[in-house]
Specification:
205 residues, alpha+beta, T2SS_GspH, membrane
């Protein structure tokens, strides 16, 4: 009576490991792009949430509330056109981003967010305003004056979030990072959109 051994031979194991290695290697670039794109979406969603909070607080308090992009959220913070950290405050949070306030305080921080929370590689590539102020009606108001002392006109604002460390933004025909825009209308409406998609697409810009 002949006996048959059960299990895998060394050659079968080697072939299986080789095929598995090829599959993993082919999937690494896509996984890397997905991870880097996730950081962009995390930052963009956070900015959108911060803007919505600022608008809601302005309506709740019937007072001006500002959303500002900052270099950090500690005592050394400054306004930034490229940072994805943000602060929602009643007054200017410069050098006081860690100073939270009560409902009766006239200045200080209501809430802050750091890009270290899952979006350290994300950055703002461009924005038409680093300070966005909402009034008690939830509408945008002037964010201050320009170098000549003239009031900055209220206009639609677009904040573009990218990940230059991860790679270039994708287009309709090229693989890459899924970059995102956050748009704020003069009326205070806030939405996040994908610039790689056609404007006719509900998720496109």
């Amino acid at each position: 009576m002949s006996t048959h051994s059960k299990g895998f031979s060394l050659i079968e194991i080697a072939i299986t490991l080789a095929v598995l290695g090829i599959l993993i290697a082919s999937g690494i670039p896509s996984l890397r792009l997905w991870i880097q794109s996730t950081q962009v979406r995390t930052a963009a969603e956070s900015i959108q949430n911060g803007l919505q909070l600022a608008r809601a607080e302005a309506v709740r308090r019937n007072a001006n509330v500002r959303f500002q992009l900052t270099t950090s959220i500690d005592a050394s913070c400054a306004i930034s056109n490229s940072g994805t950290n943000w602060v929602v405050s009643l007054g200017s949070p410069v050098s006081a981003c860690a100073s939270f306030v009560t409902d009766t305080s006239s200045t200080g921080v209501i809430q802050a967010w750091s890009n270290k929370d899952g979006a350290s590689n994300a950055e703002v590539s461009s924005t038409t305003a680093s300070t966005i102020i909402f009034n008690g009606l939830g509408r945008q108001v002037s964010s201050g004056t320009d170098a000549s002392g003239n009031a900055i006109p209220v206009a639609p604002i677009v904040i573009s979030v990218i990940n230059s460390k991860g790679g270039a933004c994708t287009t309709a025909s090229v693989d890459g990072i899924r970059c995102m825009n956050v748009a704020v209308s003069t009326g205070g409406n806030i939405r996040m959109c994908d610039p790689a998609l056609n404007s006719s697409d509900p998720q496109g810009c």
